[in-house]
Write a structure and sequence with these properties.
The chain has helices spanning 2-6, 13-27, 33-46, 48-61, 63-71, 73-79, 113-116, 121-124, 126-134, 136-142, 179-183, 188-192, and strands spanning 90-94, 99-104, 152-157, 163-167. By secondary structure, it is mainly alpha-helical. Mean pLDDT is 87; it is low at 1-8 and 203-208. The structure holds fe (iii) ion.
Amino acid sequence: MAHDHDHNDPPSDTVLRVKALESLLVEKGLVDPETLDTLVDRFENRIGPQNGKAVVAKAWRDPDYKARLLEDGTKAVAELGYSGAGGETIVAVENTDRVHNMVVCTLCSCYPWPVLGLPPVWYKSAPYRARAVREPRKVLEEFGTHIPADVEVRVWDSTAETRYLVIPKPPLGSEGMSEEQLKELISRDSMIGVRLAGAGQPNTGGAS
Ligand code: FE
């Protein structure tokens, strides 16, 4: 996906510092690199969007749950057992025929960890953070997401205190599906609001 590359900056100071720290810890025998990889993989791919998929699939199937989720995201997410750091206040926003929501953190990379895991590289990149606010429709087009002109695009700026989860629109034809089948249609990116559900999951393999 060209988008992921266009939006990648060269390694930041932080990345370089983390790498230096990691090498040192491994060298001193304090950390096993495989354990570290397992841990990162867990947050990126397992704990990660899987929890959010369960939340969204349930919301699609169960109108009462969806109502609770929209009313108090933190509490509704905790009902399914997901909570912890980065999830102190989770606000769920719903995509409809009239409104499309997308999420950014203009300051840094705040992200709802308990439901989405670790943020993808592009989410933390300076271009995404600046452009998502300035020209959201253009950014969405670059993700292959066309939002018709009569649909309002709302951009939510995450903070350390408040982090957003997008409830994408269920794709046409998904009405009779089980929650397990629905999860297959829900991508991480659709819960950030940059892709539609059912539009493929090009980024599920890693941090992109
Ligand atoms: Fe942030």
